[in-house]
Amino acid sequence: MRLAWWGNPTRDERTIKVADLYMGAHPKVKIETETTGWAGYWDKMNTQAAAASLPDLMQHDYAYMLQWVQRKQLLPLDEYVQSGVLDLSNVDASYLQPGKVDGKLYGVNLGSNAVCLTYDPAVLAKAGIPEPDSTTWTWEDFEKMALTIYQKTGVKTMPFFTTDPKVGFDNMIRQTGASTYAKNGGGLGFTDTTVLKEYYAIQLRLLASGALIDPETAFINVTQAESEFAKGHSWVEWIWSNQYVATQAGANRPLKLALLPQIKNSKQKGTFIKASMFFAIPASAKNPKDAAAFISYFTNDIAANEVLMGERGVPVATKVRTQLSKEVNEVNQQIFQLIDLAGKNSSPIDPPDPSKGGEFLKMFRDETMEILMKKVSIDEGVKSIMEQGNAILK
Question: What is the set of domains in the chain, with CATH numbers?
Answer without folding.
Answer: 2-110+276-344 (3.40.190.10), 115-271+355-393 (3.40.190.10)
